[in-house]
Amino acid sequence: MGQCKFLHANGANGLIALESGKLQLQLKEDQSKSRKTKETKKWVHVWVPRFCWLEKSLLPNGPLFSHSKAMLQRCFSAPKEANLFKLIIDMYIRVKRSKTTYFNRCKASDKIIDIKQKLQELVDQPTNDQRLILPGTGEVLEDSKTLADQKIIWPKCSVENDAVVALTLRKGVLLLLRWDAILSLPVQNPPTLEISSLDLVWSKVEGWHDKLDRVALIPFARVDDFVRGESNNKECPTRFHVEARRRRSPSTPFKQKVDGILEYILYWCSFGPDDHRKGGIVRPSRTTYVPKKKNAGRPNTKRGCTCHFIVKRLIAEPSVALIIYNDDKHVDKKGFPCHGPQDKKAAGTRAMFAPYISEELRLRVLSLLYVGVSVETIMQRHNESVERQGGPSNRDDLLTHRYVRRQERAIRRSTYELDADDAVSISMWVESHQNQVFFYEDLSDSDPFTLGIQTEWQLQQLIRFGNRGLLASDSRFGTNKLQYPIHSLLVFNSDKKAIPVAWIIAPRFSSLDAHRWMRALYNRVHTKDPTWKLAGFIVDDPLYDILAIRDVFQCTVMISFWRIRHLWHKNLVKCLKSDMQIKISRRLGWIVDNICRLQGNMSLFEEFMQEFIDESKFMDYFKSTWHPRIGAWINALQTLPLASQESCAAMELYHNQLKIRLLNEKEIGVYQRADWLVDKLGTKVHSYFWLDEYSGKDDFARYWKNEWMSGLTSWRKALKIPDSDVSIEDGCAKVTDQDDRDKALVVWNTGSMLSICDCSWAQDGNLCEHILKVLSICRKRGSVLPSVTLFQYHQALNNMLHCPPFDSLIRDHAVSLAVSVQKQLNTLLDKESVQTVTNPMEERIGIDIPLESFRVVSGNRGQDLVIKKHVTNDVLSLDGGEDRYDSNEAPGCDSAMHNIADQGEDGVITRNGERSESAGVDSLSADMDVDPPSTCDPVLHPVDDTIPSYTE
User: Domain named SWIM-type: which ranges (predicted)?
Assistant: First the structure.
């Protein structure tokens, strides 16, 4: 064993000792300068063949060699009595171009050949014949140039004259590694809910211990997605935990380093790094661990796995995370598999599967507990399912009674009132639930209180069903009971049921101040999926900030009529007798229909109020509540596309579900506390809607209460009623009850937007399946006009086709789009006719162009294209629509193109290659009012491919 003394640059002294091929560096700290009273001697083991790297620094005051201005002595040579081993602690060299000096070694004016000579002294081997290259670009540095001529500079650092250069030796090549080469890598953001290492393109850089590390850049907001993706590795499922974490403030009084980090996180496989198996190694820092009396499970949780990676949040790019994958194999230090299916010794133990349960099972357990299912029932159903499949096959099958009991205890002991002051309690809740809050604005003199809540599951549903789909708004729930109304955002699943994907809690007067939380929600979704795009946004209030929606989501905006219909019908039933209910509802339905078809204005409502002035109770309600808003509603109904009754039925069902599940407290005083509201939304209410999508909820049918109310929407129920169960006579219809065949339900005002039914669901002001079925049959028989939605689409198409042909491209695009939509609609009907029983008298949808001949001059072709079209006036000129434009100036092409984008786009049939409408009894597109849930980007189809069949 050889020893030598050395004096370190910071004043510390120590010993270098060689023993068994390892070099031990003992540092002694001056006790007079140290504030610590405990032991200050620390040993550092360094691998030493001919040159070495520092393995670990254990100085009490932090890293052994800092990168501050007081740069420590980088390299030093041991004397001869230490066997002439050369200790290379760190090969990073800081360049100060302003001072044209390198610490101890290099100058900015040094040529590359001179640097090689100094490197030869550093590594004690010839370097003249070796190349000095930049690994980021592969550029070979010329020997005749100076270091300054190579333009090695940090491009994104505020200090332009600083650069960090790493010099190392590997396989006969000297590499010059730069941080800007790492940051020049592309930031990868795969459009998936989880990111795994297989989804990324990795670059290799020089790391510690003479090995190459794999690096990649991803958005820092998606680090959790990467951790989940790596944990769900199919070959070796596991879970990663935070082994070490360091944070620093982004603002410091001194100049930042170019390679400084804001956050450092070390993630390690939960089966390591310690090894509790027989003969395994436990790190010295864990020697204080006191073994449990019964440690039967310990060998299955700590098995010495070396798989780990590092996440760095750099000062230069705070929004980007640098992933450094040091070891990507799930093996122990001997190189053998230590857990998972590849480890034969793990067979029959928990080490075969990933530790802990999956997120889906955790949500299922919590949801069942929140809605009142007992621990014993949960475990009984779980054990029965495991037995049916023949034993455990994944980590979820190992669910324990202890875990479920612990979750139940935590729920029972939790409370919504974190503080007596409601505002303070809300702030505390927001601080502890950061992952569920996408926007928060406390009450101030300039801004109202606003809180946006969205769980991870809701975000996944928004990405899944909202992409190329519809997003609906229920903006006024709890206006009369709650301190803050709830603004719900909804998407529609494959069964066309509404799923809440976000809740915004704000005072009534802040409905116009929605741009900020919309932008926050949009950014959160785009962080997960940059390709996500909304097809349409349905609003239920004409005072909604339409411009903000179009600015943020870049999509169609539609208006929903269900709320007005619900409130009008509810008060008609409350205030009037049956005969008067039928008369007033028929008149209101006729007025709204004419306004939507651009044939009415405010005068229709004035005449209505004069005609029924004797019905004072209802008229007082109508004048006080709706007369001030009628102008805004008329403008919205005439300028925005009307949402279909299919969407309205889904929104109506959600509204009733939320009412039953939220407003069921015995103590009504809690309705005035916002902390109670956010707590119940995030726990019980969220659990009910999660269970609505859970396929195994029927196993818990004995626990169902009113809050479990779910099932099909009225629209879907109408599809199940056969035509033979409907008979129409003398302006009313009778529909046989599907539950009680001996009972018939009566529907008045058949074909009207405000029909009345005597079923219990309709008497509460809701849109029932009997009304929808009768309306479908009336439209099929042609006894009523087509739906307003279809009329608005045809009107927008007609407007575009009647643009002055100043440019043949406009006309060609219009004709091409019309023919394309016709083909897609007929294709949908053909597919549905194979699976459903359709009416033999049903006709295919045709989109024709008015009977006229016109000439289109195309400058690009240099020839005349004469196109003749034939049309039936009942399609594009409904209710005299064409005559109205004969007397007025034709609308501008820009406006027409905007209208067709707002209304015509909704006619596209597919989303991600799937058919948008499920099979029903009747063909939906022609008979019933449907919102196609998806759109495709408008494409300018080649005219030559679509026009020939119409040309002469």
Answer: 742-779
Q: Residue 340's pLDDT band (boundaries 50, 70, 90)?
A: confident
Q: Confirm if 721 and 774 have CB atoms less than 8 A apart.
A: no
Query: Identity (one letter) of the amino acid at 56?
Result: K
pLDDT value at residue 256: 62
pTM of the predicted structure, to 2 decimals: 0.69
Burial of 47 (0-12, 13-18, 19+ CB in 10 A): middle
Going by the DSSP 8-state scheme, the letter that residue 642 receives in this structure is B
Alpha helix stretches (DSSP H) within 840-932: 873-876, 881-886, 893-903, 924-927
Tell me the Cα Rg of the chain.
36
Reported as a single tens digit per residue, the pLDDT across 840-878 is 434 444 444 343 333 333 333 333 333 333 333 333 333
Contacts of 264 (CB under 8 A, 6+ apart): 244, 245, 246, 247, 310, 311, 312, 313
The secondary element (H helix, E strand) that includes residue 592 is helix 578-596
Given a cut of 60, whether residue 44 has pLDDT beyond it is: no
CA 280/CA 303 separation, integer angstroms = 8
Question: What separation, in Å, do the N-terminal and C-terminal C-alpha atoms of the chain show?
Answer: 102
Record the tokens describing residue 880, joined without a space.
């005299």
Residue-by-residue DSSP string for 652-705: HHHHHHHHHHHS--S-GGGGG-HHHHHHHIIIIIHHHHHHHT-TTGGGGGGG--
**Residues 6 or more apart from 834 whose CB is under 8 A from it?**
none
Mean of pLDDT values over 694-719: 82
pLDDT greater at residue 903 or residue 6: 903
Instruction: Please give the mean pLDDT across all residues of the chain.
Output: 72
SS3 category, 361: helix
Which residue in 765, 796, 842, 470 sits closest to 646, CA to CA? 470
**What's the CA dihedral at 830, 835, 839, 843 to 10 degrees?**
-10
Please tell me whether residue 84 adopts helix, strand or coil conformation: coil
Residue 602 CA: distances (Å) to CA of 17, 566, 609, 630: 97, 21, 11, 8
Q: DSSP letter string over 513-542?
A: --HHHHHHHHHHHHHH-TT----EEEES-T
- pLDDT value of position 291: 58
> 334 with 305: CB under 8 angstroms?
no
Say if residues 874 and 898 touch (Cβ distance below 8 Å): no
Domain boundaries, the chain: 1-90, 92-179, 185-285+298-356, 358-413, 425-560+645-708, 564-631, 714-784, 788-950
- Local structure of 553: helix, strand or coil: helix
Place of tokens 């230090």: 333
Q: What is the pLDDT of residues 56-105, one digit of tens each?
A: 332 333 333 333 223 323 333 333 332 222 222 233 333 323 322 222 34
CATH 3.30.420 fits 92-179, yes or no: no
DSSP state of 583: H
d(CA 128, CA 622): 94
User: What residue type is 627 in one-letter code?
Assistant: H
Distances (CA, A) of 681 to 361, 434, 572: 20, 15, 32
Determine contact, residues 196/202, Cβ cutoff 8 Å.
no
Nearest CA-CA partner of 20 in 47, 59, 50, 55: 47
